[in-house]
Amino acid sequence: MLGPYSRVFRDHAGCFVFEFQAMRGKDLPDPLHWADQLDDFLKELPRDFRYAVELRNPELLTGVHGEVLKRHGVAHVFNSWTEMPPIGEQVDLGWTFPASFTVARALLKPGRRYSDAVKQFQPYDRVQEPLPALRVDLVRLVSEAHRRRVEAFILANNRAEGNAPGTIKAVARMWLEGDAGTTS
Fold first, then answer.
1. Which pLDDT tens digit goes with each residue over 142-160?
2. Paired residues of 59 in beta bridges
3. CATH 1.25.40.10 for domain 2-177
4. Are 34 and 65 in contact (CB under 8 A)?
5. CA 133 to the chain's CA centroid
């Protein structure tokens, strides 16, 4: 896969995102074991590509996880997802900028199930439920990345507010206006 990617997409893509779905029960490792497993995995990856890790378990958002990301130059993926803390809380963790770039994914309102968002927002033709806190968090994240001189990839999903282009447009306008307090 990396050969064709390098030849065709290398100059047009940001990074590979490893999305780890929510783990439960015996499938959920303790944070130290997780960090060791992730470290072993990242050691095996070719160094000439950019990578990011997206977690869906807040229990794994630990400093030791951040140390592994930093050691390998791998980005943390800030995400707005059902069981995850808001993006602003992830920024506050202190270790969430371990690489020369960052990724954010505005996917769902925390606490909302994916299937519920699909039913609520189809056909995704307009923003149906603006999420002011999410927008403020994204502007804060972009501002922090800019301050750190870190490249930021911000992705929105239709299931966040009902229309991904509308979400991105509103966040971009807020950032350009320098006003994280409005959500027009």
1. 999 999 999 999 999 999 9
2. none
3. no
4. yes
5. 16
pLDDT of residue 9: 86
Q: Which residue has the tokens 């990074």?
A: 15
Going from N- to C-terminal start, the domains of the chain cover 2-177
Which pTM value belongs to this model?
0.91
Q: What is the DSSP string of 118-166?
A: HHHHTT--S--S--HHHHHHHHHHHHHHHHHT-EEEEEE-HHHHS-HHH
Q: Quote the tokens at residue 20.
A: 């780890």
175's enclosing H/E stretch is helix 164-177
CA end-to-end span of the chain, whole Å?
Answer: 42
The rounded distance, in Å, linking the Cα atoms of 60 and 34 is: 7
